[in-house]
Amino acid sequence: MLPKDRKIYFVFLISLILTGLAVFDGTPLFVALATIMFPIIASYGLIVKFKIFPGVIFATILWALSIFVRDLLIGSLTFETVKTVSVKLSTVIIFVVVYLFDKIRRGERKSAEQ
């Protein structure tokens, strides 16, 4: 059975193109699949399943981990990679704060309406 959501096909096509470009540039196929194709498709799934805010938070964590795993698998893990991953994960804190602020604001609005 094919999924009824046609957006997944577009996401799959983009992930195939980006994975193909990475392989063409010299990235091993397994590394490209594990760190480009899988995170793109999984991020889309997370955003669809958990809606915008929680999905974006989970997708950001997934992308930070994929950056770390990519450099680990290739053997080029450096302090710069660790800094990049930590900056990427620090955006998760911002997303969480915005998400909690939005929940509190909506709760106050519902209380005022009652």
Structure description:
This is Permease. Keywords: Membrane, Transmembrane, Transmembrane helix. The chain crosses the membrane at residues 7-24, 30-48, 55-79, 85-101. The mean pLDDT is 84. The protein starts with 6 loop residues before the first helix and ends with a helix. Helix content is 86%, strand content 0%. It has 4 helices and no strands. The radius of gyration is 18 Å and the shape is flat. The chain has one domain (2-111). By secondary structure, the chain is mainly α. Helix 2 (29-50) packs antiparallel against helix 3.
Give a short synopsis of this structure.
The protein has helices at residues 7-24, 29-50, 52-74, 79-113.
> How much beta, percentage-wise?
under 5%
Residue stretches low in confidence (pLDDT < 50, at least 5 long) are none
Global morphology: flat
- Give the structural class: mainly alpha
Overall pLDDT confidence: 84
Supply the key terms.
114 residues; mainly alpha
Give the secondary structure arrangement, pairings included:
Elements: H1 7-24, H2 29-50, H3 52-74, H4 79-113
